[in-house]
Amino acid sequence: MDGSVRSFTLRLRPAAAAWLAAAVAAAPARGVAAQGTISGRITVLEREGSRTTDLENAVLWLEPADGGGTGGAPSAPQIVMESRTFRPAVRVVTPGSTVPFPNYDPFRHNVFSNTGPGAFDLGLYGRGEVRSARIDRPGIYPIFCNIHARMVAYVVAVPTPWHAQAGADGHFEIPRVPGGRYRLRAWHDRAGERTQDVTVTDGAAARVDVALDARGWRRLPHRNKFGQEYPPESRDRY
């Protein structure tokens, strides 16, 4: 052997070449088809005379029943500040994601979170500016504005790629789930969390309907980032 690299060409008959190309193309498709889908509808029980208008705030995710870690690709979904409101009020991400908070209002905001698994404070910034928060740990992150007391949002960080946020009608779908046993977790900002066991079968679709209970929910005041009560917003000069 002289150590040189030699090249060669493999020539296949047309029928063999066509068979090989079809086999390569079909391999990933079969893998995807073997995965399952969990779908269903979430409902929220309300006090008598009340109607649910925020079903899209519900987040659902799957965790392997054996407790194994699954991870998930980071993302960067934004939460806009407009008319003294966070829009949308809930975002679901995986740890390692970054959430931008653009300010569309003609006055300043100060986004912060200090009661979840990780604290951050983006400081005061004005219209047209964007500041971002990195979410490193799984859990529920309540998001507030240090200027406007009624501004509240949530970032839900889940340690799994199999998650969904319900639509305005309560329907959800979690696709591309490998077959196996899982815990389905459902959370809503007014109705807390519920967990139930589900089984995913390769190549099959399963329906799971979830009911949460918000009848005991009451809006509670929170304090600003200094631990103090908010002044009346009528005095806000920002």
Textual characterization of the structure:
Strand 10 and strand 11 form a beta hairpin. Helices cover 8% and strands 41% of the residues. The chain contains 1 helix and 17 strands. It has a 5-stranded mixed beta sheet with strand order 5-11-10-7-8, with no helix packed on it. Strands 1, 13, 16 and 17 form a 4-stranded mixed beta sheet that branches. The protein folds into 2 domains: 102 residues, Carboxypeptidase-like, regulatory domain (Immunoglobulin-like), CATH 2.60.40; 88 residues, Cupredoxins -  blue copper proteins (Immunoglobulin-like, Sandwich). The N terminus is likely disordered. By secondary structure, it is mainly beta.
Please tag this protein with its features.
Immunoglobulin-like, mainly beta, 238 residues, disordered N terminus, 2 domains, four-stranded mixed β-sheet, 41% strand, single chain, 1 helix, five-stranded mixed β-sheet
Biggest sheet, spatial arrangement of strands: 5-11-10-7-8
The CATH architecture of the largest domain comes to Sandwich
What is the strand tally? Answer: 17
Class computed from helices, strands and strand pairing = mainly beta
